[in-house]
Amino acid sequence: MLTRKIKLWDINAHITCRLCGGYLIDATTVTECLHTFCRSCLVKYLEENNTCPTCRIVIHQSHPLQYIGHDRTMQDIVYKLVPGLQEAEARNQREFYRKLGLEVPGDAKGEACSAKQHLDPHRDGETKADDSSNKEHLQGQPRGDPRCTSPVSICLECNSSKLRGLKRKWIRCSAQATVLHLKKFIAKKLNLSSFNELDILCNEEILGKDHTLKFVVVTRWRFKKAPLLLHYRPKMDLL
Ligand SMILES: [Zn+2]
Ligand SMILES: [Zn+2]
Questions:
Q1: pLDDT band for position 198 (50/70/90)?
Q2: CATH 3.10.20.90 at 151-234, yes or no
Q3: From ligand 1's centre to the CA of 33, what distance in Å?
Q4: Where do runs of H (alpha helix) occur along the chain?
């Protein structure tokens, strides 16, 4: 009995994030020392630091974010050991999108990915009851493709003096969300009258609104393991 308790307690220390004290969410490991944290906690920390929060080794002098990686095995272990955590996280994500009045991208529901629903202009800005959108969402879509399930971490920087920066510029969202999603997100946060006033850029190239974040990462972003850095500014003709 006693042995068992000690073992569980030991495990707990390994599946907890040192930065937030909670169970690991989107577990992300420093490649150099193999210490693991929640992705959002670690990315935020590395904005200001270049060392591992646990062992203090220098991860990289100038680009520490390129030396961290999603740790799927660890996340699977955490979800297996902590009952209800995965469901709670999925609920949090749904809540996050719902509060913003955005459609819930596929994998926040823990389902197959579909770019389709995000491209349909008739559904812009609509929030649907879980049930109906689930059904539409699943029609004819491949299920369980693991490449579609890792969320993308994004840093949204403003590069225009005409617009405000975001209070929270680090966000994490579904790889199947589109550039249009991000435009709506920013427009909502900045109280813009229309998301059409915005351009979003990656490596100084304007992104098409129908591109999924997965597509942007694969085609435009060299640093596969680092969060995707995007800039926004008013559309050129509005400058
Ligand atoms: Zn954390
Ligand atoms: Zn470390």
A1: very high
A2: yes
A3: 17
A4: 2-14, 39-48, 72-81, 85-99, 116-119, 130-138, 179-189, 213-220
